Automatic annotation (TrEMBL):
GO terms for cellular component: Gram-negative-bacterium-type cell wall; plasma membrane; type II protein secretion system complex. Pfam families: GspL_C, T2SSL. Residues 4-150 form the GspL cytoplasmic actin-ATPase-like domain. CDD domains: ASKHA_T2SSL_N. Belongs to the GSP L family. This is Type II secretion system protein L. It comes from Pseudidiomarina andamanensis. The gene is gspL.
Length: 408
């Protein structure tokens, strides 16, 4: 499943940064910024059918550590706030405390804790709810950056050798606009303004991710998150009273729409592949595509042993679900794009979805001009409306999102 990463903001007019990542392709699909939380609804469509991971600004989160007797592991929600009360200027009743999964071992339990104002948590969750975005994970933003790695030790004979802080660890950093996120350890770090960064990082040998061997610096957020199984667990702020509770729609069972969703998805794969075979020269790849279509159908309907005509058999499944009208919609929209694809041979279709009578595509082209010309040609027929979404320049190629609707 694709992933949508969002770095939330707290102050008014503080930008939000976001990106969409494909774990299967290990590729950044789209990215951008919003002016503040009030514009979060612009990501509602992006959040559908994607895993959403959010990050809280480090300026709002205190990362600390507390030592407790191992016997307290079953009473952490009561013990942790009281253990930190003397270190905090704010009343503990106004604060939310979160920590990674704790394991009992030894007489003393060392626990890393994230502290954030309850008002801030309510504000972020309210903004997500108003934007109709479900998010089970909110982490402090230092977890957007990979943890520092031990650097090779310099020999004593090397002049100018500067010992690295924290036992050979050089902090890693990521710059987002006017903000710098600095991670100094597995559970330590801070966030500051670019203007203050030189002062607060004086004496540190920072490793900016922008200077690492990373094609797109922002992609480090996704790669760091997806490497979490091989690293110590992160601190998810959505726990205890802020634990995620998915709402179930009354009177509707998810299983009711599951066969329809599978059938519609397979139909779209058939429709898209058929159009590509017809309008774009794929040569000997067409046979491989046909085999892939048949295999997708078998995966969706494993009990169906005999396959004669995938399209007609799939349509029968749709009709049995009362979806007779669905079968023509994606085909019709794709057919109207024929002239645009022919006029712009460098435009390559990477991802495609169909929902709510709208075709959503992710495409790549050689230039912005080619992508814009594709949109203009597609709109000339007057049958459809093609709108352009976020566009990014990646490694000499332009990646952009397009939505296609029937002109009414």
């Amino acid at each position: 499943m694709e992933q949508l990463f969002i770095r939330l903001s707290s102050a008014e007019r503080e930008p939000l940064h976001w990106l969409i990542w494909s774990p299967e392709q290990s590729e950044l699909i789209a990215s951008g910024t919003l002016n503040d939380l009030s514009e979060l609804s612009q990501l509602t469509d992006h959040a559908r059918s994607r895993e959403v991971i959010c990050y809280a600004p480090g300026t709002d989160v205190l990362l600390t550590e507390v030592e407790l007797p191992s016997s307290a592991i079953r009473m952490l929600p009561q013990v942790v706030p009281n253990a930190l009360e003397d270190e905090l200027a704010q009343d503990i009743s106004e604060l939310h405390f979160a920590w990674p999964p704790a394991k009992k071992g030894g007489a003393v339990l060392g626990l890393h804790v994230a502290v954030v104002a309850r008002d801030a948590m309510h504000k972020w969750l309210s903004a997500l709810e108003q934007a109709d975005i479900e998010c089970d994970e909110i982490y402090p933003d230092i977890f957007m950056v990979p943890a520092p790695q031990v650097q090779p030790q310099l020999s004593e004979s090397e002049e100018g050798a500067d010992p690295a802080p924290e036992q050979g660890l050089h902090p890693t950093s990521l710059t987002l606009g006017e903000t710098v996120i600095i991670r100094t350890g597995q559970y330590t770090g801070f966030t500051t303004d670019t203007a203050l960064a030189p002062i607060v990082t004086e004496g540190m040998q920072l490793q900016p991710v922008e200077k690492m061997d990373i094609e797109v610096p922002l992609s480090v957020v996704a790669t760091t998150y997806n490497a979490r199984k091989s690293t110590p667990p992160m601190i998810n702020l959505r726990q205890q009273e802020f634990r995620s509770q998915h709402k179930k729609r009354k009177g509707v069972k998810a299983s009711t729409y599951k066969p329809a969703a599978i059938a519609a998805g397979v139909l779209l794969a058939v429709a898209y592949s058929s159009q590509v075979i017809e309008y774009v020269h794929l040569g000997n790849q067409s046979e491989q595509l046909e085999q892939a279509i048949e295999q997708t159908y078998r995966d969706a309907f494993p009990n169906e042993k005999r396959i004669v005509n995938v399209r007609s058999q799939l349509n029968r499944h749709l009709e049995s679900l009362g979806m007779q009208g669905t079968k023509s919609s994606p085909l019709e929209l794709l057919a109207h794009l024929e002239s645009a694809f022919k006029a712009n041979r460098d435009v390559r279709l990477e991802l495609i979805r169909y929902d709510d009578k709208t075709l959503r595509m992710q495409v790549k082209a050689n230039s912005f001009a080619s992508l814009e010309n594709f949109r203009k040609v597609a709109n000339q027929g007057g049958q459809i409306v093609v709108e352009q979404g976020p566009v990014n320049n990646q490694s000499g190629a332009v990646s952009g999102a397009l939505t296609v609707k029937k002109d009414v």
